[in-house]
Amino acid sequence: MMMAKKWAKFLRDFENFKAACIPWENKIKAIESQFGSSVASYFLFLRWMYGVNMVLFILTFSLIMLPEYLWGLPYGSLPRKTVPRAEEASAANFGVLYDFNGLAQYSVLFYGYYDNKRTIGWMNFRLPLSYFLVGIMCIGYSFLVVLKAMTKNIGDDGGGDDNTFNFSWKVFCSWDYLIGNPETADNKFNSITMNFKEAITEERAAQVEENVHLIRFLRFLANFFVFLTLGASGYLIFWAVKRSQEFAQQDPDTLGWWEKNEMNMVMSLLGMFCPTLFDLFAELEDYHPLIALKWLLGRIFALLLGNLYVFILALMDEINNKIEEEKLVKANITLWEANMIKAYNASLSENSTGLPFFVHPADVPRGPCWETMVGQEFVRLTVSDVLTTYVTILIGDFLRACFVRFCNYCWCWDLEYGYPSYTEFDISGNVLALIFNQGMIWMGSFFAPSLPGINILRLHTSMYFQCWAVMCCNVPEARVFKASRSNNFYLGMLLLILFLSTMPVLYMIVSLPPSFDCGPFSGKNRMFEVIGETLEHDFPSWMAKILRQLSNPGLVIAVVLVMALTIYYLNATAKGQKAANLELKKKMKLLQLLVASNFQSSPGGPEVLHTFLLKNNVLCEAPENKCWAAAHLFC
């Protein structure tokens, strides 16, 4: 008996130890107790994103950045690893480093620093191959982990349908039993009451005659304004990118703070103010609040994604200009090398000292590195978005909460329950911002291997900063999705932006020629040629031949077609099983109703009914005198 108690105590202590090892578990539990599970779901999502980015950072750091730092040529040995002579004076200035130029640009943080040697170090580490495979592996891992999370959520939800007894589910399942704060409990009570009023209004709305033509006109007008806003935001971003490219050609000392950060600030400000405009336009549509919320989220997602793609299109224009510029620069470098050889030969004829020909890497002319330029833009966007978010929280949440808290005693009306009141914690907006930022990480990490590490720092500080802001300054959002239903909604958006953010990267890898004098793929026509080079040098001829045949376009197309047909078959099978399950549910409900009606008044009816339901796994074990009430609930 004593051993059993000791063993039980050990197991309990071990479970507590495992819970203590989970990052930020106590913080999230405190928020869950104060605000309920809906607000805590955002921080759980943030912690999950932190874990995903940690894996991406481990891959890029251990297989790309660390090998180059340990075994690659040091700084100053090659032109690509050296700050140009004209930039040396300001290379270590804070303003230059903050803009990720100078010493930061010529470091392992960006693509252009890496050498194109096949092997480096005493281990003969194949860095170009590792760089390419890690980039593809990060994309594949991201798809795998998002799909796995979606599948797990579907399994946790059970795939059931709770729309059959709408009001019954609202009565018995609306309360959040994790709430431990009285004020939050009152807010939750008022929210449930409002949900019932909305549901009753929705039921009665079908019987009320409405001016259909007026509603259609107002909804058309609202969508017209939305499209105007989306178009204007895209034009502003395109214009800002063009101006930033013009500023890049000027002397940095002549530019002010706004000129250096104009493009990043424009994107951040559009992300702040356009959702407010969308909320105003939604007032014209007169949708049900939940439908209006979904429309709002969809429009914000379209805004963020459209802005990102306009930014990519502007970058593609600049990349094409850089590629054209490379041709001229390459010819000039060839001419420069020829002149240097002539000068060296002339010096030998005049003075035959036999001194070796040497030019310092800082003095060697070099071409534009468009890959580093792309990586710098995404790093700047990430850092600028972090600073904008933190300043917004400090001004919009903290100062507003201080004003409401301390001026409420001497004001004409109640500031806490009237205007301006405390700020609501916008779960949907914060999750969408997190998804959008992650899309930038996926898109830019191939050209800036340090980007997952920068994002880890951002998520780490966001966890502490936003936890503090929520506990001190915010109140729960009035209308939110149920946590169990919103997870896959957000994960679906994350999967979509993962797909759309990796397409431009794959296009650049397959279609664009790499820069000729920077990066691990310099000297090749396309980046993916590193695979063919590895097959040619590192595999036996017969194995290389087999792998080339496997990569034949005809075979790849056939495999893709088979996979598409398999997916279609599995999807059709799943739909058939779902329809069969729904039909079985209907039969079970009818059977329950028949059993309840037959046994209600018969002698021993409740006991027989209880036994029948237990055998058919309809109800969990319950006292026999409560069997009839439970049967009515399920019928």
Low-confidence stretches: 158-163, 480-485, 615-635
Q: Round the mean pLDDT to the nearest integer and report it.
A: 77
Q: What is the count of DSSP helices, taking H or I runs of 4+ residues? A: 19
Q: What's the shape?
A: globular
The percent of residues in helical segments reads: over 70%
N-to-C series of helices and strands:
HHHHHHHHHHHEHHEHHHHHH
| End-to-end C-alpha gap | 47 Å
Q: How many strands appear in the DSSP assignment?
A: 2
Order of neighbouring strands in the sheet with most strands: 1-2
Structural class comes to mainly alpha
Biggest sheet architecture = 2 strands, parallel
Rg over alpha carbons: 31 Å
Q: In percent terms, what proportion of residues is strand?
A: under 5%
InterPro entries: TMC, TMC_dom
Domain TMC: 369-484
Membrane topology: Multi-pass membrane protein
Organism: Sciurus vulgaris
